[in-house]
Every structure is written in C-alpha cells, then in structure tokens.
Amino acid sequence: MARKQTNEDLQREEHERIKMGMHIVIESLEPGLIGQMQMLQEAVSNWNIRQGFWPTEGADITVKLSKLALIHSEVSEAVEAVRKPSLTGALEPYDIPLETEELADVMIRLLDYAGYYQLDLAEAMMRKLRVNFDRPYKHGKEA
Question: Which pLDDT score is estimated for 72?
C-alpha cells in the first residue's frame, strides 16, 4: 500500500525544485557577480585607506578585531532600527528605511575589511551559497 503524501513531503519536494533553480541562478550570475564584487571590494577598501581609516603600517590583531567589532555594531544598529522603526538615518530624504541603511553599512564594512585583508569574499560567498543550497530541507531536522 502506498504511503500517503504529507504536507512535509510536499515541502521537501518543493525544496528540491527550488534548490535546482538556485543552482541555475548561481551558475548564471557567478562569473560577472564575482568580478563586480571584487572591484567594489577593492574600491571601498582603497577609499577607506585613503581616508585614513586603516593604518599605513601593517594592521595587528587589535585592528582586525576592532574592524570586526565595527561590522557587529552595524548589525546592532540594524537590530535597533527594527526594534524602533520610528528612528531615521542619514538616507531619510531618499526614503530608504533605516534598517536597510544599516544593512548597507554592514555590507560596506564587510567589503572594506575583505579588501584590506585581501579576502576573496565574493568567491567564498558563492561557494557557501552552493553548500547551503545543497543542504536538505530544514537541514535534515524534523519540524
């Protein structure tokens, strides 16, 4: 006797279809996206070096940790923007929500950090997306 298909089974099947689609998206975007992200990463980092936000001599662990803390602080500001939606930011006249503005700051700081330390953030992101898209529905955990 055939087992009755459950809602969970249907969700798993849908997950597999979407996963296949996501791999197609990655394959089509990857070459151009990686190059563009690398250029943006380099531009942001070079600008911040010229603006004096990085030491002219080698950066030690303290600098590295403080830059990571700045990324964390931008995430905290995004959390605060969600908690208090009435707050406004520097981009208010452009009708960009503060939450979005703070998440943009996270990305800018990530690009800056990765550029300074010559980390290939774009390639790592694409590889990580592939890994994530290959995970089973709910990462194999039951509901």
Answer: 98
